[in-house]
Sequence to fold (267 residues):
Amino acid sequence: MLTDKQKETYYRDGVVKISGSFDPKWVEFLRRATDDNMKNPGQMAEEYADSEKSTRFFGDQYVWTRNDDFRKFVFESEAAEIAAELMGSNKINMFFDHLLVKEPGSIEPTPWHQDGPYWKIKGRQICSIWFAMDEVTEQSGGVRYVKGSHNTGIRYRPESFSGEGHVEYQDGALQTMPDIDATVALDDIVCYDLEPGDCLIHHTDIIHGAKGNQSSMTRRRGYATRWTGDDVVWDPRIGTTDVLRDPGLMPGDPLDCDLFPVVWRRG
Ligand SMILES: O=C(O)CCC(=O)C(=O)O
Fold:
């Protein structure tokens, strides 16, 4: 499903764009599921933008646990096998999914961050597949990445997506994210144009963020699924974000459970 060059790009840059690996049917399928979810959001849904200043930047997580269409994508689409091939894993768990919709005119940027520090898991085989439901450009809020930043060994303190700073995620051991726009050369920041059905796969430790959606017409609907491989274990650290419910795991346990099911196994 992936070329050697795509794998090399992922390991070198921390992110790779994949076109043509998903059946095109998933685009309409996920668009419908997204609309349904936005009308009937779950307990983890959030509005990241201030409604007095901006159109919506909507997020919801663990949508696969409540919505049969997202569940179908998680269990039946090409995603888990792509993750297995990329990470060279014998099994793949679904950690969680995250719907991220920036409506035209939504001014709220996605802050620069790494995913790993937010999450109660550890291991190297952790990736996200960000599936584009729309044409996406940097101007419409395409995700921007600092190439190679997954390999520095530095982890930065998580920050709230809704502009409230570090309130929720105090962990004195982690450094504050530097001002990436002011300190990183533009050549080291990559943002791919995407067509509906394309996806980006990124490593858990890569620094990434996004501008608001400056388009006046085009929605930016992304569905990020988070996948883990053989070496990943439960690691409920201070300063990490809540999961949907207690998974019943002990620190160091493999993730296999109802909340983080094994979706693919080499066989
Ligand atoms: O869609 C966005 O704006 C941010 C995506 C992101 O941070 C992620 O998928 O990890």
Summary: Residues 25-39 form the longest helix (15 residues).
